[in-house]
Amino acid sequence: MTTVTELLQPVELDLENLVATLRSLIGAKHPILQAAAEHLFSAGGKRLRPGIVLLISKALTPNGELSPRHRRLAEITEMIHTASLVHDDVVDEASTRRGVATVHSRFNHRVAVLAGDFLFAQASWHLANLDNLDVVKLLSRVIMDLADGEVKQGLYKYDSGQTLQTYLEKSYCKTASLIANSAQAVGVLSNQSDEHLKSLHFFGKQLGLAFQVVDDILDFTGSDQQLGKPASSDLASGYLTAPALYALEENPKLDTLIQREFSEEGDIEEALQLVRNSNAIHRTRKLAENFAKESREALTWLPDSPSRNALVQLPDFVLSRLY
Fold first, then answer.
1. Cys-Cys crosslink for 107: which of 18, 111, 234, 286, Cβ 3.0 to 4.6 Å?
2. Can you give the CATH number for the domain in which 103 is found?
3. Separation CA 52–CA 188 (nearest Å)
4. Which has the minimum average pLDDT: 7-11, 106-110, 309-313?
């Protein structure tokens, strides 16, 4: 099975430089905030989002050279993603992320919220300095979507009446928007046609949705190590994802458990079994496969190159996490 490290090999050195640059961009003016951000960057992670930005940038450049503005866009993408993780962990009260103590559990909630705000502010500053209004609009939309997705997630806790469409809109905001809009922003910086800009956005949107749907399957079937957070945590927190929504169509008993917010002993274990013993996981896997297929097909126009080959393999890599 291809690993993410192998897929990102065409931009391996660029990603190493990116992490070093991020540390210098954050600066040392705020020691506590810097320590919090540094802690999160040190926690590792796949760097998939900036990797996608760099791969698209190389795929759109005849000689494969990266301009300073393409590099800065990748750095901004990782800043926004990291800031969103800090805030997510506070909202979810998660104690670990990628096996490392979260910022708020290592420092405190106040520092974590400020560290996330600090990173969003830094990203916005560097975004403005790209001097491209279309790119500013695209990435600013991402920050709005991230907040919108978090609010939607909270509003629909334990709401068994929500639709699959509501779930997908929330998933787009929380996961796919950053990949879709940063992919389109690369195209803007590379002077691509409107048609190509739309296909780059669609590639990122469908890839992001596939990634989120796979994550939601793994919440029922995966391990803590695979997820980078405790398994079954979404359902236990009242976040109803595609497997739970599909299972609700088959078994009314699950609705009863959700309505009482898993308040009785054994409720969450019974709910997990109802989902696992239904057709829900299979249906959700088909949903992810469809998103991955559409994502892969969106980039057929790119000229052949190692970066293009890596990009069209990404949807299959996302699906491979299930097996």
1. 111
2. 1.10.600.10
3. 15
4. 106-110
